[in-house]
């Protein structure tokens, strides 16, 4: 048995012990609905079941570490209702569920699925966006150091930003909201793709609304151990989600927005290589030398294989610079 297997087994035992302890304290299993998405033909409803203290009021402004102090409920049945359909499902070992619902009968726009935890009978809602087949343009945006200043790759700073600072103190990258307004028409969807944990969903959703960024589904991940390692691969998570969007929305050509502090250029290069006709534009926020030092210890961009410049590309230090480059590109285009 490998180290990853031992860690996963230990995690499972701790999770189940935590659920029993919370149940004895009169906590109940409740669903947390994350933002899903879909087309007129099918939709993905996503969420997680956690033990909740019924006497504790929700508090969105808190120390970041509290977001990670959760008690997921593994392998528990849930019922998901959306439009004309009702689907039964079970959570996985980490308490997550993802349900694919066909023929829901909903019009394009924002809707809510109802998620019922069978054991407790508690109902919650999960928002989702149905995107019309007539939409032909969309944006996929990175989060960390693209719309939000985090310097995530550096472990100490990541811990400080994610665990110590209060969740309402995150700072936006200047001008990104205006840049997205310039890029998109009203019905063009925006997906936020991040290697951040689902535990930070509420904070990120609130951040997007507070800083007037376009509302859109968040595609996050889980930081726990996998069958092959102690941590999930962030780049692989991004690749999988990008390919899912290419498949789910065959009529959309995408603008990819990221930064040069991590692996966005390499990941976007892979997608351009695989689907060059589906990528309209790549926009890269260029970190300053000081930000690069904090991000990965060097004053320059990480050398990465691949080349996304087979499609139109723009670069800038913040949203205002990117918007200016976009204006030049649009005028010439």
From TrEMBL:
Pfam family, one: APP1_cat
GO molecular function, one term: phosphatidate phosphatase activity
Domain spans labelled Phosphatidate phosphatase APP1 catalytic: 138-286
InterPro entries: APP1_cat, Mg2+_PAP
Protein name: DUF2183 domain-containing protein
Top-level taxonomy: Bacteria, Bacillati, Actinomycetota, Actinomycetes, Mycobacteriales
């Amino acid at each position: 048995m490998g180290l990853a297997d031992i860690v996963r087994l230990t995690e499972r035992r701790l999770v189940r012990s935590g659920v029993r302890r919370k149940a004895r304290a009169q906590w109940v299993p409740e669903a947390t609905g994350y933002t899903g998405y879909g087309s007129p033909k099918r939709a993905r409803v996503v969420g997680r079941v956690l033990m909740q203290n019924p006497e504790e009021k929700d508090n969105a402004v808190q120390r970041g570490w509290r977001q990670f102090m959760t008690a997921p409920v593994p392998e528990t049945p849930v019922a998901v209702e959306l439009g004309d359909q009702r689907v039964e499902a079970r959570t996985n070992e980490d308490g997550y569920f993802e349900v694919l619902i066909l023929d829901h009968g909903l019009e394009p726009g924002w809707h809510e699925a109802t998620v019922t935890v069978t054991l407790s009978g508690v109902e919650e809602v999960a928002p989702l966006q149905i995107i019309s087949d007539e939409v032909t343009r969309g944006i996929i945006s990175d989060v960390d150091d693209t719309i939000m200043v985090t310097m995530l790759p550096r472990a100490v700073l990541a811990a400080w930003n994610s665990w110590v600072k209060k969740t309402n103190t995150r700072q936006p990258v200047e001008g990104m909201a205006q840049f997205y307004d310039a890029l998109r028409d009203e019905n063009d969807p925006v997906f936020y793709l991040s290697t951040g944990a689902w535990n930070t969903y509420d904070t990120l959703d609130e951040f997007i609304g507070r800083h007037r960024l376009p509302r859109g589904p968040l595609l996050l991940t889980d930081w726990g151990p996998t069958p092959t390692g102690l941590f999930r691969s962030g780049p692989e998570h991004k690749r999988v989600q990008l390919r899912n969007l290419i498949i789910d929305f065959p009529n959309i050509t995408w603008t990819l927005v990221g930064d040069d502090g991590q692996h966005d250029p390499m990941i976007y290069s892979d997608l351009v290589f695989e689907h060059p006709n589906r990528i309209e534009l790549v926009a890269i926020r260029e970190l300053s030398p000081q930000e690069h030092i904090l991000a990965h210890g060097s004053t320059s961009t990480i050398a990465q294989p691949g080349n996304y410049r087979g499609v139109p590309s723009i670069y800038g230090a913040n949203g205002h610079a990117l918007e200016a480059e976009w204006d030049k590109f649009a005028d010439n285009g």
